[in-house]
Design goal:
The protein has a six-stranded mixed β-sheet, sandwiched between helices. The chain has a four-stranded antiparallel β-sheet with strand order 2-1-4-5, with helices on one face. It is elongated, with a radius of gyration of 24 Å. Helix content is about 35%, strand content about 30%. It starts with a strand and ends in a 6-residue tail after the last helix. It binds adenosine-5'-diphosphate. Adenosine-5'-diphosphate binds next to helix 1. It holds the Pfam family ABC_tran.
Protein backbone atom coordinates (compact mmCIF):
# COMPACT_ATOMS: atom_id res chain seq x y z
CA UNK A 1 0.00 0.00 0.00
CA UNK A 2 1.34 3.42 -0.85
CA UNK A 3 1.98 5.96 1.87
CA UNK A 4 0.48 9.39 2.36
CA UNK A 5 2.85 12.07 1.06
CA UNK A 6 0.76 15.21 1.45
CA UNK A 7 -2.14 15.71 3.79
CA UNK A 8 -4.35 18.78 3.43
CA UNK A 9 -6.77 19.18 6.28
CA UNK A 10 -9.66 21.61 6.56
CA UNK A 11 -7.83 24.51 4.87
CA UNK A 12 -9.64 27.79 4.70
CA UNK A 13 -8.94 31.32 3.60
CA UNK A 14 -10.97 34.49 3.13
CA UNK A 15 -10.15 37.62 1.20
CA UNK A 16 -11.81 40.67 2.77
CA UNK A 17 -14.43 38.57 4.55
CA UNK A 18 -15.20 36.52 1.42
CA UNK A 19 -14.44 32.79 1.74
CA UNK A 20 -12.20 31.70 -1.16
CA UNK A 21 -11.29 28.29 0.31
CA UNK A 22 -13.78 26.73 2.68
CA UNK A 23 -12.60 23.65 4.58
CA UNK A 24 -10.65 21.85 1.85
CA UNK A 25 -9.22 18.42 2.75
CA UNK A 26 -7.56 15.79 0.57
CA UNK A 27 -4.46 13.63 0.44
CA UNK A 28 -1.78 12.88 -2.11
CA UNK A 29 -0.16 9.45 -1.93
CA UNK A 30 3.47 8.88 -2.86
CA UNK A 31 3.80 8.82 -6.64
CA UNK A 32 0.22 9.87 -7.20
CA UNK A 33 -0.97 12.47 -9.72
CA UNK A 34 -3.88 14.45 -8.30
CA UNK A 35 -5.90 16.70 -10.58
CA UNK A 36 -7.48 19.67 -8.83
CA UNK A 37 -10.36 20.52 -11.11
CA UNK A 38 -12.75 23.44 -10.91
CA UNK A 39 -13.98 26.47 -12.82
CA UNK A 40 -12.23 29.84 -12.69
CA UNK A 41 -12.54 31.36 -9.24
CA UNK A 42 -13.19 27.99 -7.56
CA UNK A 43 -10.26 28.44 -5.16
CA UNK A 44 -7.61 26.27 -6.84
CA UNK A 45 -4.77 28.84 -6.84
CA UNK A 46 -5.49 29.89 -3.27
CA UNK A 47 -5.45 26.22 -2.21
CA UNK A 48 -2.14 25.41 -3.91
CA UNK A 49 -0.65 28.70 -2.64
CA UNK A 50 -1.38 27.56 0.93
CA UNK A 51 -0.11 24.03 0.23
CA UNK A 52 3.16 25.49 -1.08
CA UNK A 53 3.49 27.72 2.00
CA UNK A 54 3.24 30.93 -0.02
CA UNK A 55 -0.07 32.03 1.44
CA UNK A 56 -0.96 31.92 5.10
CA UNK A 57 -4.19 30.00 5.75
CA UNK A 58 -6.92 31.23 8.11
CA UNK A 59 -7.38 27.68 9.37
CA UNK A 60 -6.47 24.06 8.76
CA UNK A 61 -3.13 22.41 8.14
CA UNK A 62 -0.84 20.98 5.46
CA UNK A 63 1.76 18.28 6.14
CA UNK A 64 4.31 16.78 3.78
CA UNK A 65 5.67 13.45 5.02
CA UNK A 66 4.15 14.36 8.36
CA UNK A 67 5.98 17.68 8.60
CA UNK A 68 3.86 20.85 8.74
CA UNK A 69 4.15 23.28 5.84
CA UNK A 70 3.71 26.91 6.82
CA UNK A 71 5.07 30.12 5.29
CA UNK A 72 7.71 30.15 8.07
CA UNK A 73 8.96 26.55 7.62
CA UNK A 74 11.37 26.86 4.71
CA UNK A 75 12.98 23.42 5.24
CA UNK A 76 9.61 21.74 4.66
CA UNK A 77 8.77 24.09 1.78
CA UNK A 78 11.91 22.94 -0.02
CA UNK A 79 10.49 19.43 -0.33
CA UNK A 80 8.00 20.67 -2.87
CA UNK A 81 8.20 22.56 -6.12
CA UNK A 82 5.60 25.05 -7.29
CA UNK A 83 5.04 26.14 -10.87
CA UNK A 84 2.85 29.22 -10.40
CA UNK A 85 0.49 30.67 -12.97
CA UNK A 86 2.52 33.85 -13.15
CA UNK A 87 5.90 33.21 -14.73
CA UNK A 88 8.95 34.32 -12.80
CA UNK A 89 11.80 34.62 -15.29
CA UNK A 90 14.45 37.23 -15.99
CA UNK A 91 14.21 38.18 -19.63
CA UNK A 92 17.76 39.50 -19.95
CA UNK A 93 19.39 36.34 -18.59
CA UNK A 94 19.69 33.16 -20.67
CA UNK A 95 17.58 30.10 -19.82
CA UNK A 96 20.61 28.50 -18.17
CA UNK A 97 21.46 31.65 -16.19
CA UNK A 98 17.86 31.82 -14.99
CA UNK A 99 18.11 28.24 -13.74
CA UNK A 100 21.42 28.94 -12.01
CA UNK A 101 19.77 31.80 -10.17
CA UNK A 102 16.88 29.59 -9.01
CA UNK A 103 19.30 26.81 -8.09
CA UNK A 104 21.35 29.18 -5.95
CA UNK A 105 18.16 30.12 -4.08
CA UNK A 106 17.74 26.42 -3.25
CA UNK A 107 21.32 26.27 -1.99
CA UNK A 108 22.80 24.46 -5.01
CA UNK A 109 26.28 25.47 -6.19
CA UNK A 110 29.26 24.39 -8.26
CA UNK A 111 29.30 21.14 -10.22
CA UNK A 112 26.06 19.96 -8.61
CA UNK A 113 24.23 23.10 -9.77
CA UNK A 114 25.64 22.72 -13.28
CA UNK A 115 24.59 19.09 -13.48
CA UNK A 116 21.08 19.73 -12.17
CA UNK A 117 20.59 22.60 -14.67
CA UNK A 118 21.56 20.30 -17.55
CA UNK A 119 19.27 17.53 -16.26
CA UNK A 120 16.19 19.70 -15.81
CA UNK A 121 16.70 21.38 -19.20
CA UNK A 122 16.66 17.92 -20.72
CA UNK A 123 13.55 16.96 -18.75
CA UNK A 124 11.61 19.88 -20.26
CA UNK A 125 13.27 19.46 -23.68
CA UNK A 126 14.97 22.83 -23.76
CA UNK A 127 18.62 21.67 -23.77
CA UNK A 128 19.16 23.16 -27.22
CA UNK A 129 17.88 26.57 -26.04
CA UNK A 130 19.98 26.80 -22.85
CA UNK A 131 21.87 29.88 -24.02
CA UNK A 132 18.87 31.74 -25.41
CA UNK A 133 16.98 34.39 -23.49
CA UNK A 134 13.37 33.68 -22.42
CA UNK A 135 12.37 36.87 -24.29
CA UNK A 136 12.83 34.82 -27.49
CA UNK A 137 10.68 31.93 -26.17
CA UNK A 138 7.01 31.17 -26.82
CA UNK A 139 4.65 31.23 -23.82
CA UNK A 140 4.84 27.46 -23.65
CA UNK A 141 8.64 27.37 -23.68
CA UNK A 142 8.71 29.91 -20.84
CA UNK A 143 6.33 27.69 -18.91
CA UNK A 144 8.61 24.70 -19.52
CA UNK A 145 11.55 26.72 -18.19
CA UNK A 146 9.52 27.50 -15.08
CA UNK A 147 8.83 23.76 -14.65
CA UNK A 148 12.58 23.13 -14.97
CA UNK A 149 13.23 25.71 -12.24
CA UNK A 150 10.76 24.00 -9.91
CA UNK A 151 12.49 20.63 -10.45
CA UNK A 152 16.06 21.76 -9.67
CA UNK A 153 16.04 20.78 -6.00
CA UNK A 154 14.44 17.37 -6.65
CA UNK A 155 11.15 18.02 -4.85
CA UNK A 156 9.08 15.07 -3.59
CA UNK A 157 5.95 16.80 -4.87
CA UNK A 158 5.56 19.11 -7.87
CA UNK A 159 2.57 21.45 -7.90
CA UNK A 160 1.50 23.00 -11.19
CA UNK A 161 -1.10 25.75 -11.30
CA UNK A 162 -2.89 25.73 -14.68
CA UNK A 163 0.34 24.99 -16.57
CA UNK A 164 -1.20 25.05 -20.03
CA UNK A 165 -3.03 28.38 -19.90
CA UNK A 166 -1.80 30.58 -22.76
CA UNK A 167 0.37 27.78 -24.17
CA UNK A 168 0.65 26.80 -27.85
CA UNK A 169 -0.38 23.21 -28.75
CA UNK A 170 3.20 22.08 -29.43
CA UNK A 171 4.41 23.20 -26.02
CA UNK A 172 1.28 21.79 -24.43
CA UNK A 173 2.24 18.36 -25.74
CA UNK A 174 5.83 18.86 -24.59
CA UNK A 175 4.56 19.80 -21.11
CA UNK A 176 2.44 16.65 -21.01
CA UNK A 177 5.33 14.48 -22.15
CA UNK A 178 7.47 15.97 -19.37
CA UNK A 179 4.78 15.43 -16.75
CA UNK A 180 4.13 11.87 -17.92
CA UNK A 181 7.86 11.13 -17.68
CA UNK A 182 7.97 12.60 -14.15
CA UNK A 183 4.97 10.48 -13.22
CA UNK A 184 6.69 7.37 -14.61
CA UNK A 185 9.71 8.19 -12.43
CA UNK A 186 7.43 8.13 -9.39
CA UNK A 187 7.12 11.86 -8.71
CA UNK A 188 3.88 12.97 -7.08
CA UNK A 189 2.08 15.83 -8.82
CA UNK A 190 -0.78 18.17 -8.10
CA UNK A 191 -2.13 19.68 -11.26
CA UNK A 192 -4.81 22.37 -11.28
CA UNK A 193 -6.91 22.90 -14.35
CA UNK A 194 -10.32 23.86 -15.59
CA UNK A 195 -9.84 21.58 -18.61
CA UNK A 196 -11.29 18.14 -17.99
CA UNK A 197 -9.45 16.43 -20.82
CA UNK A 198 -6.07 17.46 -19.38
CA UNK A 199 -6.89 16.24 -15.90
CA UNK A 200 -8.26 13.03 -17.38
CA UNK A 201 -5.07 12.36 -19.32
CA UNK A 202 -2.78 12.64 -16.33
CA UNK A 203 -4.58 12.19 -13.04
CA UNK A 204 -4.88 9.00 -10.95
CA UNK A 205 -7.14 10.84 -8.61
CA UNK A 206 -9.39 13.87 -9.05
CA UNK A 207 -10.44 16.47 -6.51
CA UNK A 208 -13.26 18.65 -7.83
CA UNK A 209 -13.67 21.99 -6.12
CA UNK A 210 -16.21 24.74 -6.56
CA UNK A 211 -16.86 27.83 -4.44
CA UNK A 212 -13.92 26.82 -2.24
CA UNK A 213 -15.39 23.44 -1.28
CA UNK A 214 -14.47 19.87 -2.28
CA UNK A 215 -17.36 18.33 -4.21
CA UNK A 216 -15.66 15.05 -5.09
CA UNK A 217 -12.41 13.31 -4.19
CA UNK A 218 -12.17 10.08 -6.16
CA UNK A 219 -10.49 8.05 -8.87
CA UNK A 220 -11.69 8.86 -12.40
CA UNK A 221 -13.47 5.46 -12.49
CA UNK A 222 -15.24 6.24 -9.21
CA UNK A 223 -16.38 9.60 -10.57
CA UNK A 224 -17.81 7.97 -13.69
CA UNK A 225 -19.73 5.49 -11.56
CA UNK A 226 -21.64 8.46 -10.10
CA UNK A 227 -23.18 9.21 -13.46
CA UNK A 228 -26.55 7.66 -14.27
CA UNK A 229 -25.43 7.34 -17.91
CA UNK A 230 -21.91 6.31 -18.88
CA UNK A 231 -22.58 6.92 -22.55
CA UNK A 232 -24.99 8.55 -24.92
CA UNK A 233 -26.29 7.13 -28.19
CA UNK A 234 -27.67 9.53 -30.76
CA UNK A 235 -29.71 7.90 -33.51
CA UNK A 236 -31.59 9.49 -36.36
CA UNK A 237 -34.51 7.46 -37.65
CA UNK A 238 -36.20 7.75 -41.04
CA UNK A 239 -39.26 9.22 -39.34
CA UNK A 240 -40.37 10.40 -35.91
CA UNK A 241 -41.19 7.36 -33.75
CA UNK A 242 -44.52 6.79 -32.05
CA UNK A 243 -44.78 7.62 -28.33
CA UNK A 244 -45.34 3.91 -27.53
CA UNK A 245 -42.03 2.98 -29.17
CA UNK A 246 -40.21 5.63 -27.09
CA UNK A 247 -41.75 4.25 -23.91
CA UNK A 248 -40.70 0.74 -24.81
CA UNK A 249 -37.20 1.95 -25.72
CA UNK A 250 -36.85 3.54 -22.28
CA UNK A 251 -37.58 0.10 -20.73
CA UNK A 252 -34.84 -1.71 -22.70
CA UNK A 253 -31.99 -3.15 -20.58
CA UNK A 254 -29.16 -0.64 -20.05
CA UNK A 255 -31.17 2.39 -21.24
CA UNK A 256 -31.23 5.18 -18.64
CA UNK A 257 -33.05 7.94 -20.52
CA UNK A 258 -34.68 8.70 -23.87
CA UNK A 259 -35.22 12.11 -25.42
CA UNK A 260 -36.72 12.62 -28.86
CA UNK A 261 -36.57 15.64 -31.12
CA UNK A 262 -38.61 14.60 -34.14
CA UNK A 263 -36.78 11.65 -35.73
CA UNK A 264 -33.59 12.29 -33.72
CA UNK A 265 -33.23 10.29 -30.50
CA UNK A 266 -30.84 10.91 -27.60
CA UNK A 267 -30.54 7.73 -25.58
CA UNK A 268 -28.68 7.56 -22.26
CA UNK A 269 -26.88 4.24 -21.70
CA UNK A 270 -25.42 2.66 -18.57
CA UNK A 271 -22.35 1.79 -20.62
CA UNK A 272 -21.05 2.21 -24.17
CA UNK A 273 -21.08 -1.57 -24.65
CA UNK A 274 -24.88 -1.47 -24.50
CA UNK A 275 -25.15 0.49 -27.77
CA UNK A 276 -25.22 -2.43 -30.29
CA UNK A 277 -28.14 -4.20 -28.58
CA UNK A 278 -30.15 -0.97 -28.42
CA UNK A 279 -29.39 -0.23 -32.09
CA UNK A 280 -30.43 -3.76 -33.09
CA UNK A 281 -33.68 -3.37 -31.14
CA UNK A 282 -34.34 0.02 -32.78
CA UNK A 283 -33.60 -1.37 -36.26
CA UNK A 284 -36.05 -4.23 -35.71
CA UNK A 285 -38.79 -1.91 -34.39
CA UNK A 286 -38.40 1.20 -36.55
CA UNK A 287 -36.02 0.35 -39.41
CA UNK A 288 -32.26 0.90 -39.47
CA UNK A 289 -31.27 4.38 -38.21
CA UNK A 290 -30.07 6.75 -41.00
CA UNK A 291 -27.24 7.84 -38.77
CA UNK A 292 -25.99 7.08 -35.28
CA UNK A 293 -23.09 8.02 -32.99
CA UNK A 294 -22.08 7.11 -29.45
CA UNK A 295 -20.36 9.37 -26.98
CA UNK A 296 -18.70 8.32 -23.75
CA UNK A 297 -19.55 10.52 -20.77
CA UNK A 298 -16.87 13.04 -19.80
CA UNK A 299 -15.72 14.75 -16.61
CA UNK A 300 -17.74 17.69 -17.93
CA UNK A 301 -20.90 15.59 -17.45
CA UNK A 302 -19.71 14.72 -13.94
CA UNK A 303 -19.26 18.39 -13.06
CA UNK A 304 -22.71 19.09 -14.49
CA UNK A 305 -24.20 16.27 -12.40
CA UNK A 306 -22.50 17.56 -9.23
CA UNK A 307 -23.28 21.26 -9.63
CA UNK A 308 -26.02 21.61 -12.22
CA UNK A 309 -23.65 23.90 -14.15
CA UNK A 310 -21.05 23.37 -16.83
CA UNK A 311 -17.37 23.91 -15.99
CA UNK A 312 -17.27 26.90 -18.31
CA UNK A 313 -20.26 28.74 -16.77
P1 LIG B 1 -9.01 29.58 -9.15
O1 LIG B 1 -7.56 29.35 -9.03
O2 LIG B 1 -9.83 28.33 -8.98
O3 LIG B 1 -9.40 30.34 -10.37
P2 LIG B 1 -8.60 31.46 -6.98
O4 LIG B 1 -8.05 30.69 -5.84
O5 LIG B 1 -7.68 32.27 -7.80
O6 LIG B 1 -9.47 30.49 -7.89
O7 LIG B 1 -9.72 32.45 -6.43
C1 LIG B 1 -10.73 32.04 -5.51
C2 LIG B 1 -11.56 33.26 -5.11
O8 LIG B 1 -10.77 34.15 -4.35
C3 LIG B 1 -12.08 34.06 -6.29
O9 LIG B 1 -13.35 34.55 -5.96
C4 LIG B 1 -11.07 35.18 -6.42
O10 LIG B 1 -11.68 36.31 -6.99
C5 LIG B 1 -10.69 35.43 -4.97
N1 LIG B 1 -9.28 35.89 -4.85
C6 LIG B 1 -8.17 35.22 -5.23
N2 LIG B 1 -7.05 35.92 -4.93
C7 LIG B 1 -7.45 37.06 -4.33
C8 LIG B 1 -6.78 38.21 -3.78
N3 LIG B 1 -5.45 38.30 -3.78
N4 LIG B 1 -7.55 39.18 -3.26
C9 LIG B 1 -8.90 39.10 -3.25
N5 LIG B 1 -9.60 38.07 -3.74
C10 LIG B 1 -8.91 37.04 -4.27
Amino acid sequence: MSSVLLSVSNLSKSYGGRLAVDGVSFQVMAGQVVGLLGPNGAGKSTTVGMIAGLLRSDGGSVTLNGEPITPGNSAAKRKLGLVPQDLALYDDLSALENLKLFGALYGLAGAQLKQRCAEVLQQVRLSDRADDKPATFSGGMKRRLNIAAALLHRPALLILDEPTVGVDPQSRNAIFDTLEALKAQGMALIYTSHYMEEVERLADHIVIIDHGKVLADESPAGLYRRLPSQAALRAELAQAPAAALLQELARQPGVTSVRADGAALDIGLQETAGAPAVLAWLAAQAGAPLHFATNRASLEDIFLTLTGRTLRD
